[in-house]
Amino acid sequence: MKKTLAIALIASLGHWALPAHSTPAETHDAAPVFPPAQRLYNKDGAYSHLTGIGRFKSNMQCTASLIDTRHRHEILDQPAYVLTSGHCVDSGQGKILTNTPITGHVEFNYFADTTDSTRQYALKQVHWSSMRGIDLAIVELDASLGDLMQAGIQPLLIAAPLKPGSDIVIVGAPQGEHLQLSSCRLESLRDIIEHPWIWPDSLKTRCRGLGQGSSGSPILDPRSNTLVGVVNTLNKASTSHAKCHRNAPCEISDNALHWQANVVYGPSTKRLQGCFVQGRLDLSPRQCRLFPTYAIDAPSPRLQQNYLGARPELDLKALSPTWNLKFSASTAFYRYKVDSRQSCASAAGYSMAMSTANAHINGPIGTDPGLHWLCLVGVESPEQKPTWGLLENALIVATELRDQQNQAPELVMLQGWGAAAGYRSAMVLFEPPAHERIFIKTGVLEHPDCDDPKDYEEIFPRSNHYGFVAENDQAGEKKICLYSQNIRGEPSKTASHFLKSRNESKGKDKDQDRLDKP
User: Fold this and answer.
1) Nearest in space to 162 (alpha carbons), one of 187, 134, 181
2) How far apart are CA 195 and CA 263, in angstroms?
């Protein structure tokens, strides 16, 4: 972007100014069915325009595209850059990598019938890579663009976004495959949560045949063979507890989470427009909306948390958990706001600049059900004015509040592996203010009686907010009774569970993946 926003800092106001346990809802709309992926062959040169898409191997195996950075189609000695997904380079949420050495390589001309003539180039440097708001990476190769083009590798131009309903193709190399082409249409932009990551304004498609290794695949306008987006995630959820987490992204609509099967998502290349000047990545925030960058090291709050609803008949107000966000940053100061996701990229409403020394945001999340958002940016001084890049690099965290009323806390079943494969264990999550204290008792067969208040013992949380409940390394079932008290001292309902030994269980427990990132 060539013009920095002219934004006044209103120091006196401390703000910038700019003119029940809920399972994610499943959407079963009558989606169109597109053709299966087509394996590509290029010995006759039919797909020579796709030779610049190849297998990317570094931190993981992905797909990448050679970027056409020429100004007027001249071939210069400018660096050769490839575009891929940020998580193919580094999956950290808080940091944005710049000018970082990298090892690995890219193989071009990666067709099923050209295995004897692939072209391999070493990776040299990560110029920009992020998982914060956008899953994208720009990596320099250890060769010039001219070297690659003289070897017959054709780069791809970055194009303006397409409108919903436009035909697109995705070209990539899933694991164990060479390049294949999938065709479908773009749908409207979606905000995505793949906890702990949040992807605003993601492209949505229903192209088929993608899988592990497809990350980084270019989304192309087939009319011009230009880059409009990059694949970064698709749905593989198998249980309700997995949804909205890794490899099972959820869409955000009407302030709620919605999960759809067989959907592919990815960022557009909109933020890259204008970033290359005379064949090189321009680091100026005035020119490129990827900059400035800053690091924020912060834990992600749990995706779903409980609050206590108001009880007017007892003159009790609603009680909310707090953000409890302790973090560090590479900048001396930070600003934040608690608002909608869409407002994170707007300078309006951010707090006054505060020191990042011992930073801790601990205000209440809210007392309304649904999604709640926190936007956090790093600034070097209270006087630093916001640019689009600074705002679009904001750390965005979200949590969904739910009123479980007097429901018992959830039990998490875990199965031992390796030397511990002979037992299964159970843990429970402490979630103040709803589940402030937790009580259990255990026995065998139908004993004990969970409704009998005798013999309950209080358990206490460990450092990760989970409390150990029981384990079973013997034959037969172990019965677990539990209930909780909220911060008001009100008891929940009692709940009973049966913990089998692993030897009696067929395969992996369906709840095993529930323990995601405590």
Assistant:
1) 187
2) 17
- Helix H, strand E, coil C: the string for 171-188 is EECCCCCCCEEEEEECEE
In the chain, the domains with their CATH numbers are 34-281 (2.40.10.120), 292-402 (2.60.40.10), 411-514 (2.60.40)
- For residue 272, is it left (φ>0), alpha (ψ between -120 and 50) or beta? alpha
**Phi-psi domain of 446 (left: phi exceeds 0; alpha: psi -120 through 50; beta: other):** alpha
- Burial (CB < 10 A; 0-12, 13-18, 19+), residue 45, is exposed
Q: What is the residue whose two structure tokens read 């290794």?
A: 213
CA proximity to 156, closest of 85, 217, 76: 217
With vertex at residue 495, the alpha carbon angle to CA 492 and CA 497, rounded to the nearest 5 degrees, is 155
Strands annotated E in 44-118: 53-57, 61-66, 79-84, 100-101, 105-108
Cα–Cα dist 156/160, whole Å: 13
Q: Phi then psi for 352, rounded to 5 degrees?
A: -65, 160
Residues 56, 64 contacting (CB under 8 angstroms): yes
How many C-beta atoms surround the C-beta of residue 109 within 10 A?
A: 24
Reported as half-sphere exposure (CB side, CA atoms, 13 A), residue 363 has a value of 10
**Given the structure tokens 């597109």, which residue do they identify?**
34
Burial 448-461, CB ≥16 within 10 A → b, else e = bebeeeeebeebeb
E-only strand ranges, 330-465: 333-337, 354-355, 359-361, 370-379, 395-402, 411-415, 424-429, 437-444, 457-459
Q: Which of 67, 63, 42 is nearest to 54 (CA)?
A: 63
What is the chain's pLDDT, residue by residue, as a tens digit (518 residues)? 333 333 332 232 233 433 233 556 665 556 778 999 999 999 999 999 999 999 999 989 999 999 999 977 677 799 999 999 999 999 877 789 999 999 999 999 999 999 999 999 999 999 999 999 999 999 999 999 999 999 999 999 999 999 999 999 999 999 999 999 999 999 999 999 999 999 999 999 999 999 999 999 999 999 999 999 999 999 875 555 578 988 899 999 888 899 988 899 999 999 999 999 989 999 999 999 999 999 999 998 889 898 898 889 989 888 999 999 999 999 999 999 998 777 899 999 999 999 999 999 999 998 888 999 999 999 999 999 999 999 999 999 999 998 877 889 888 777 554 444 455 788 888 888 999 999 999 987 777 899 999 999 999 988 667 888 777 666 677 889 999 999 999 999 999 988 876 555 444 433 322 222 22
268, 201 contact by CB (below 8 A): yes
36's CB contacts (< 8 A; 6+ apart) are: 182, 208, 209
Collapsing DSSP states into helix, strand and coil, what is residue 388?
helix
pTM, entire model: 0.84
Contact in structure between 62 and 53 (CB atoms under 8 Å): no
Write the CB contacts of 7 (distance below 8 Å, at least 6 apart in sequence).
Answer: 16, 17, 18, 347, 385, 386
